Amino acid sequence: MLQKQKLLVYPFDNNFSAVIKHTELLHGYVITKLVSPNGWGLVGKDAGSAGKLKEIGIKVEGNFKEALDACETVLFIDSHWKLDFEKVVYPKMLEAITEKKNILCELIVCDKIKKQLIDLALENDVSCEFLSDNEVWSSPEKSEIYSINTPVIFVLGISERTNKFEVQLALRKRLINEGYKVSQVGTKKYCELLGFHSMPSFMFGNSLSEPEKITLFNHYIKKIEKEEQPDVIIIGLPGGTMKLNNKYTCNYGITSYEISQAVIPDAAICSVLYEEYKPAYFENVCKSLQYKLGFKVDCFNLSNYHFDWIKTESSLEMCYTLLDSTAINKKIENLSGLETPIYNILEEDHGDRMYKFILDKLSSYAEVSAF
């Protein structure tokens, strides 16, 4: 068995909490250090506090240089809280490479700096990998799309920051533990570190027309189905599915729409921001998504992110408040009795119930023999 490399994650924040909760899914790496800037309020705390989770047993550190001694690879992630790349992040990338550490980078970096880092890595006999899809995608040869015969689960969010990646990993863990063979396309650029595919870059680029993206994504999933022969396919839909208002549009849910036209799901989980919802809200979301995307939402996840309208208006950028998981549980209790069930994926028992509910849904299809 290959020895796992010791991994340092920088700059750590709640954007990475789902991975911290499911470190057993990492392929080839073990997280030994989590480093955050001192001004973010996480240094010295348990990593679980970043996402209002239970304690995980890893303390967040603030000294990047000292933390380098305890790792072999550094993962530079795309944080929710933006740092000045040239003044803060880039010097640390140079420092890591000169200290003979391998680099994995989720950030978008210009070609000039990318070349400088790769050249420096070669000089120091380490690797420097940018976690983006480097494949050159061309227009599909045929405009027809294929039926996907494997059960497909969609994980979508009304907007960004709805614990959507946590749902994706929680489903993956439970399915694998039950012995199912899982193929998956996720919403983070580092999904390959967790053993599955990141969303292909052509879905976000300008080289293909929108109809070509739909066709090519269908062909992409069909290729995965043929090559991997899974029991189930999980697809995370990037971004949101609808605009919050005329100012905060979540890209109008365009990518979600295109994926919904490329593949028909057998089950769908929709994650929503926390708000003082009335039952009618969930009924309206179900109707809206059925009309817009063409499929029925089977269950909801109520996230612990609350959109902060006041702070957003004053800062002119989308701001969120993190809530304790117990507040989510209380809200769900008040919404009991809805036709479409609501879960809190941050709680293990809720994750188990969501998993069982989705499995029962797939099992109800007579043609699905794998379940």
Structural topology:
Elements: E1 5-10, H1 17-21, E2 29-35, E3 60-61, H2 64-68, E4 73-76, H3 85-98, E5 102-105, H4 111-123, E6 128-130, E7 152-157, H5 164-177, E8 182-186, E9 197-198, H6 210-228, E10 232-236, H7 254-262, E11 267-274, H8 279-293, E12 299-307, H9 309-315, E13 320-322, H10 325-334, E14 342-343, H11 348-363
Parallel strand pairs: 1-2, 1-4, 2-3, 4-5, 5-6, 7-10, 7-11, 8-9, 8-10, 11-12, 12-14
Antiparallel strand pairs: 12-13
Q: How much strand?
A: 15-25%
The structure class reads alpha/beta
- Report the CATH superfamily of the largest domain: P-loop containing nucleotide triphosphate hydrolases
Name the CATH class of the largest domain: Alpha Beta
Integer count of domains? 2
Helix content, binned percent: 25-40%
Describe the structure in your own words.
With 371 residues, this protein is an alpha/beta fold. It has two domains: 5-130, Rossmann fold (3-Layer(aba) Sandwich); 152-363, 3-Layer(aba) Sandwich (Rossmann fold), CATH 3.40.50. 34% of the residues lie in helices and 18% in strands. It has eleven helices and 14 strands. The protein has helices spanning 17-21, 64-68, 85-98, 111-123, 164-177, 210-228, 254-262, 279-293, 309-315, 325-334, 348-363; strands spanning 5-10, 29-35, 60-61, 73-76, 102-105, 128-130, 152-157, 182-186, 197-198, 232-236, 267-274, 299-307, 320-322, 342-343. Strands 7, 8, 9, 10, 11, 12, 13 and 14 form an eight-stranded mixed β-sheet that branches. Strands 3-2-1-4-5-6 form a six-stranded parallel β-sheet. Strand 4 (73-76), helix 3 (85-98) and strand 5 form a beta-alpha-beta unit. Helix 6 packs across helix 7 (254-262). The chain is globular. The protein starts with a strand and ends in an 8-residue tail after the last helix. The relative contact order is 0.11.
